[in-house]
Amino acid sequence: MSEILNGRTIPQRVRYANELVQSQAIEVVPNRPAEIVVTDEDWSDTVKDAIEALPQIWTRGLLYLILGFTCTVLPWAMLSKFDETGAGRGRIETKGAANRLESATSGSVIAVRVQEGQSVKKGQILLELESDAVRAEIQQSKTKLEGQMNRLSQLGIAKNQVSIAIATQQQQNKAQAVEKLAQFEQAQQNLAAKKSSAPLSENLKLIQLDRANKILTDSKANLLIQQTEKATQLRQARQRLAAAKTALIINDSKYQWSLKELKRYQGLREQGGIPEVKLVEIQGIAKEMELMTAQSTAEVQLAETGIKEQEINYTKVIYQLQADIRQSESKLQEQDREYQQIAAQQKVAIKQAESQLKEQQANRDSLIQGGKLAILKSEEQLKDLQSQIATLNNEISQTKQQIAESERQLAQKIVRAPVAGTVLQLPFKQPKSFVQTGQLVAQIAPQGAATILKVQMPSQNTGFLKTGMPVKVKFDAYPFQDYGVVEGKVQMVSPDSKLVDAGTGKIEAFEVDVILDRDYIQSQGKRIPLNLGQTATAEVIVRQRQTIDLILDPFKKLQQGGI
């Protein structure tokens, strides 16, 4: 085949030879069919000029390349688009704030019970701090409290005993006061009776003396009067005997009671239950009762003797009056002596009655005063016990407060999970670490809380970032070449950036919340759940650009640079 150039036909072999010739020498190509090899000398000048006027091969290739690029690549670059993405690092966290657990006290860590990523129950122990000193303080306070409670019990028993003693003493005082009042009233009646009977006896004797001077007939009347008088005296003597016997019985009963009380108080004294002064007081009462019993016995004997004397006197007077009825003068003298004797006896009896009344009054006053003193002493002892109990109750209250405070401090030494969930962060992973008060010891995501991917997006990748944009998430634990990616959407973009540590230094980054379409990785028909704390790379398609922009961007930058 030949080509036409300037109206002239150029053989194909000439063109072929022109392309292969590199020098003026003839090249022999072995193993090729025999061809006619043309040298420069075979061409005419016209042919040579025509050949030299043709374009070079590389020039034609560049022209063909430009034409091909213009016809194919340029339309494709103008019509095709590509995704511009922004990538950032993130980790799965709970939606909302996780529970930050800060230490309420300081101390060395002695045990760590959980690990990061572990699920925990509410109240489960996370870690323990050294608490030997607090436990020793609690034990010491409990021992002190036990001693205080024992002492309080003893004081309470003593208080009850003193209260019972006061009540008993008050009852005894009332009974003894009533008894002494009766004795006092009886002595008053006895004195009044003696004072009232004394004038009567004197008057009778005066009448007898007056009538002794009368006629004998008057002596008979006097006999009748004497009979009446002596009968009255005998009756009175018998009444006094009965009263003396009654007093003897009462005093003897009191004396026997005082002996029993003395024996009982001696037993209490030997046991240390009462003071010695109380025993001495009871001994005094017993001695007093013994004297009163002896006195009553003497009074009975005296009354019996008086009755006998009255009976003898009565018989004597009657017989004497009958025998001496004719001896009125002698009788007058005898009556005068009897009058003097009766008057003296009445005076003695009145003095004795007055003495007894004063004695009863003194005994009554002494008994009442002694009872009051005993009650006052017991009340003072009771007030002292009440004061000791109040002081001890205050000490017990303080000790209980100390125990409660120490137990609260002990509870703070054991860090427990406030909620059920997953441990996101555990700064202290090994024992022997020292924890300061207020320092973060754990961060727990509540169980069942919704999860999101918290992404730190560099500021240069957030110019076109908006909520609702699709996101492709590649988890570090699951290579995307084998497990693929998890898609999601941008839920929230923080209004302001902050400095974060990117490993190579601090960078400005926005916090982006990404909601995942699913919470698991699909692999070979199995679902692998995603856990809190897992890290990933999030790629957000921020916008789509034409491919030609990649070609024009360098020229735009050069233009902006002033070139």
From TrEMBL:
Membrane topology term: Single-pass membrane protein
Domain of life the protein comes from: Bacteria
Subcellular localization, as worded in the UniProt entry: Membrane
Xref: InterPro entries: Beta-barrel_AprE (IPR058982), Biotin_lipoyl (IPR000089), MFP (IPR050739)
Sections of the chain in a coiled coil: 135-194, 318-416
Location of the Lipoyl-binding domain: 104-140
Location, primary (coarse class): membrane
SUPFAM superfamilies to which the protein is assigned, alphabetical: HlyD-like secretion proteins
GO cellular component: membrane
Keyword Coiled coil: yes
Keyword Transmembrane in annotation: yes
UniProt KW keywords: Coiled coil, Membrane, Transmembrane, Transmembrane helix
TM helices/strands, residue ranges: 61-79
Occurrences of domain AprE-like beta-barrel (ranges): 452-541
Family membership noted in the UniProt record: Belongs to the membrane fusion protein (MFP) (TC 8.A.1) family.
Protein name: HlyD family secretion protein
Origin species: Chamaesiphon polymorphus CCALA 037
